[in-house]
């Protein structure tokens, strides 16, 4: 075990995690300063709607249909095989597939923008409804750029270019909060704030394309545009990405469906007491996201070649995530009322400190779920994740609205935490079963060779 741990620290694993974490952490610090200002200028109801729009923009990755993760998996595989032409074909084919699908979705989003504004946002103010409808059209335009950026980042992750990803994300992530705050000084309109966010996402996509192209040039002089797209590569991406897409569709739904239920049941004003603590606490997910973004391409290689080493990485990641999250989670639970009173105001804290504390406990569990999730995908079995999430969603849509209707925002928070605990037990059990089978298979191979 000491040998495996020393390998972990002597490699670039910890360094890559640090860069990944830095890229996520900087905008969180900015958000803590900016959110109270935007809330003050836009008003509680507009701010509640704005958080939903931001969620919508962030969750548009649901429309990548698993291709991003599939591209990362295939690019890493072909890099290991030193097959540069196949690697480029994966990138180009995946990007083209996503673009074609998203152009259709964007048109539908544009045409149905008013229907979305009227049916998914519980807002009585006619002016705000008009602002939402206009915002939906802007979101529709930016959709292909947002998803293309995830492809470019996925390719760079396969290359291990986490420092470049972090440096590239940081300024845009900060601007995502800074620009809306500046606009809120001049107008509370959701349309103009959404427009600024989407313009930034489009510019970000272009920047990451240039960075990805630069990374590709380090391993091959072949131009990305010179390689053909192939049916074989498309089928490879679809076979892996098809199951991932089920998870990618369900995961954002599971992550954000509570917001829409709470908004529709308790109203947009009360909703802010739920979503603001959620938005703040959810930022600690950057720890697990940063680690698992580095863990996935490494496990793709290690599970197939050295299962014990892969398991050592996994155990170290679990311990590291817990060690990082447990102290702020426990401290935050005890200081939640004071923090919200200072950050926003005592009246707001009185309504939301219990929700804040519950989400802190829930996101500690959420962080421990993610390594098992990544292990199962890296094993080449995304269908297991998909089936688990289908069952999870079927149960969640039953007990979430019931709890929200009877116990309000506290009931919704209890339902969310229960879902996290259930995921922890199920996914780690399945992860252990897969590890045990692979370990047994590797022992049989060794005994056969000997």
TrEMBL record:
Subcellular localization: Cell membrane
Membrane topology recorded in Swiss-Prot or TrEMBL: Multi-pass membrane protein
Name assigned to this protein: Flippase
Origin superkingdom: Bacteria
UniProt keyword annotations, A-Z: Cell membrane, Membrane, Transmembrane, Transmembrane helix
Organism encoding this protein: Rouxiella badensis
Main location: membrane
Assigned GO CC terms: plasma membrane
Residue ranges crossing the lipid bilayer per the database entry: 21-41, 47-67, 88-111, 138-155, 167-186, 192-212, 280-305, 317-340, 352-376, 383-402, 408-434
């Amino acid at each position: 075990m000491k040998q495996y741990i020393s390998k972990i620290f002597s490699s670039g694993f910890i360094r890559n995690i640090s860069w990944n974490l830095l890229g996520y952490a900087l905008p969180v610090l900015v958000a803590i300063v900016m959110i109270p200002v935007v809330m003050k200028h836009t008003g509680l109801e507009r701010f509640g709607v704005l958080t939903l729009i931001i969620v919508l923009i962030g969750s548009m990755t649901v429309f990548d249909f698993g291709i991003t993760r599939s591209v990362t998996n295939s690019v890493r595989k072909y890099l290991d095989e030193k097959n540069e032409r196949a690697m480029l074909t994966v990138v180009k084919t995946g990007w083209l597939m996503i673009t074609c699908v998203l152009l259709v979705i964007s048109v539908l989003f544009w045409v149905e923008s008013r229907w979305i504004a009227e049916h998914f946002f519980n807002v009585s103010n006619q002016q705000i409804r008009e602002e939402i409808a206009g915002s939906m059209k802007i979101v529709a335009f930016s959709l292909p750029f947002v998803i293309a950026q995830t492809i470019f980042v996925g390719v760079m992750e396969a290359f291990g270019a986490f420092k470049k990803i972090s440096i590239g994300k940081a300024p845009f992530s900060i601007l995502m909060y800074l620009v809306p705050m500046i606009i809120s000084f001049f107008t509370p309109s959701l349309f103009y704030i959404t427009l600024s966010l989407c313009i930034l996402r489009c510019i970000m996509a272009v920047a990451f394309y240039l960075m990805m192209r630069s990374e590709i040039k380090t391993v091959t002089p072949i131009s990305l545009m010179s390689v053909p797209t192939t049916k074989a590569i498309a089928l490879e991406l679809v076979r892996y990405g098809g199951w991932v897409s089920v998870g990618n569709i369900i995961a954002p739904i599971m992550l954000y469906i509570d917001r829409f239920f709470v908004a529709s049941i308790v109203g947009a004003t009360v909703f802010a007491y739920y979503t603001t603590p959620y938005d703040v606490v959810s930022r600690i997910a950057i720890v697990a996201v940063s680690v698992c973004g580095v863990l996935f391409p490494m496990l793709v290689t290690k599970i197939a070649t050295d299962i014990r080493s892969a398991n050592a990485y996994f155990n170290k990641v679990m311990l590291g995530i817990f060690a990082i999250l447990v102290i702020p989670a426990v401290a935050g639970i005890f200081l939640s009322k004071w923090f919200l009173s200072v950050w926003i105001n005592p009246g707001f804290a009185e309504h939301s400190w219990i929700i804040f504390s519950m989400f802190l406990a829930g996101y500690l569990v959420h962080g421990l779920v993610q390594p098992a999730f990544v292990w199962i995908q890296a094993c080449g079995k995304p269908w297991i994740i998909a089936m688990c999430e289908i069952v999870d969603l079927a149960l969640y849509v039953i007990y979430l609205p019931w709890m929200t209707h009877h116990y309000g925002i506290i009931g919704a928070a209890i339902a969310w935490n229960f879902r996290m605990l259930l995921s922890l037990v199920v996914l780690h059990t399945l992860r252990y079963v897969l590890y045990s089978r692979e370990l047994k298979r590797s022992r049989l191979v060794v005994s056969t060779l000997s």
